[in-house]
Design brief:
Elements lengths: L17 E4 L5 E3 L11 E2 L7 E4 L8 E4 L8 H20 L4 E9 L14 E9 L6 E7 L6 E7 L9 E3 L7
Antiparallel strand pairs: 1-2, 1-3, 4-5, 6-7, 8-9, 9-10
Length: 174
């Protein structure tokens, strides 16, 4: 199936184009499922039954709730699930996987070494290859000894003493 676009008639900002296959638990694209309720898909947010609308001639292919009431968090949940799955898959299939972050360095207020007393901090962009430290990645794993789960857990099977790295994704709010 090919995705059809018609910008002048798309009247919603965030079409739900990925859902969860209720039979396999895997995330699926609208163009890879049977049209209608036979797709056996559920909403990534509310877990309500979805209808695949991938036979559209005017609107973009999308999923709609069978109840007719759209879930306000469906799009954000879809992005969240997709990010976890795609990043995990790329990490596991790549030899290199770089991550970048801003590192803030602070100094004592009475003797700022970064900005001549103007500010007591400086930001530095850092980059490193996760594959140098970790060889495995799992989704939705509990933190050690607490009742929270991380979106992704990077860990090393070859060096079990190395502490894992937990990553949480934020789509629109923390």
């Amino acid at each position: 199936m090919s995705t059809q676009y018609s910008l002048k008639t798309v009247d919603y900002e965030s079409p739900l184009v990925y859902a969860i296959d209720s039979l396999t638990g895997k995330i699926v694209n609208i163009d890879n499922v049977e049209n209608g309720a036979g797709c056996h898909c559920i909403c990534p947010s509310c877990k309500g039954a979805l209808i695949a609308k991938n036979n559209c001639k005017v609107r973009i292919h999308h999923f709609a709730h069978q109840s007719g009431v759209e879930c306000p968090d469906a799009y954000e949940s879809m992005l969240h699930l997709l990010a976890k799955e795609r990043i995990r898959d790329v990490f596991l299939s790549s030899d290199v996987f770089y991550i970048e972050y801003d590192s803030w360095n602070f100094c004592p207020k009475d003797e700022c070494v970064y900005n001549e007393g103007i500010s007591c901090s400086v930001s530095e962009r850092r980059r490193f290859n996760l594959k140098d430290y970790f060889d495995s990645c799992e989704q939705e794993k509990p933190y050690d000894n607490i009742l929270r789960r991380s979106d992704l857990k990077f860990f090393s099977l070859s060096n079990r003493d190395r502490p894992p790295l937990y990553i949480e994704f934020c789509v629109s709010h923390p």
